[in-house]
Amino acid sequence: MFGNMADMMGLMGKMKDLQSKMKEAQDQLAGIVESAESGGGMVRATVNGQKTLIGLEIDKDLINPDDKEMLQDLIVAAVNKAFENLEPKIKEHLAKATDGVLPNIPGLDLGGFMK
């Protein structure tokens, strides 16, 4: 009976460690930055690991009120590509942050905890 209690206490300690490391990892995500371009580099979006758009550069030659749809499409493309490029960096960061706290469980993805 006490063996099970000790196992449970050990698990609770691991969960506290995990919670602490996840909070720390989440705070550090702001420092992970990724950029992407569209329109041959005429639009550049920069995002961080907290999934926030932190920069947007638009070539002045693209600013044409008569063709705003193209500009909107290029912005969306650049932002989406930057977020796509960011995902592997977030997963790598979280894997490092939780290394040794959780057992290596194939398929366990902690990326969803950061949304």
Briefly, what is this?
The protein is of the alpha+beta class.
Annotate the secondary structure layout.
Layout: H1 2-28, E1 33-38, E2 43-48, E3 53-58, H2 68-97
Antiparallel strand pairs: 1-2, 2-3
The poorly predicted ranges are none
| Average pLDDT figure | 83
CATH class: Alpha Beta
Q: Give a short account of the largest sheet.
A: 3 strands, antiparallel
Count, helices: 2
- Give the termini distance in whole angstroms: 39 Å
- What is the count of distinct domains? 1
Strand content: 15-25%
How many whole angstroms does the radius of gyration measure?
Answer: 20 Å
How are the strands of the biggest sheet laid out side by side?
1-2-3
> Within the CATH hierarchy, at the fold level, what is the topology?
Ybab, Chain: A
The CATH homologous superfamily is called Nucleoid-associated protein YbaB-like domain
Helical/strand content category:
alpha+beta
Inertia-based shape: rod-shaped
Name the helicity range.
40-55%
Written as H for each helix and E for each strand, in order along the chain, the element string is HEEEH
Q: Please report the total strand number as a whole number.
A: 3
CATH architecture: 2-Layer Sandwich
Function: Binds to DNA and alters its conformation. May be involved in regulation of gene expression, nucleoid organization and DNA protection.
Subcellular location: Cytoplasm, Nucleoid
InterPro entries: YbaB-like_sf, YbaB/EbfC
Organism: Dyadobacter frigoris
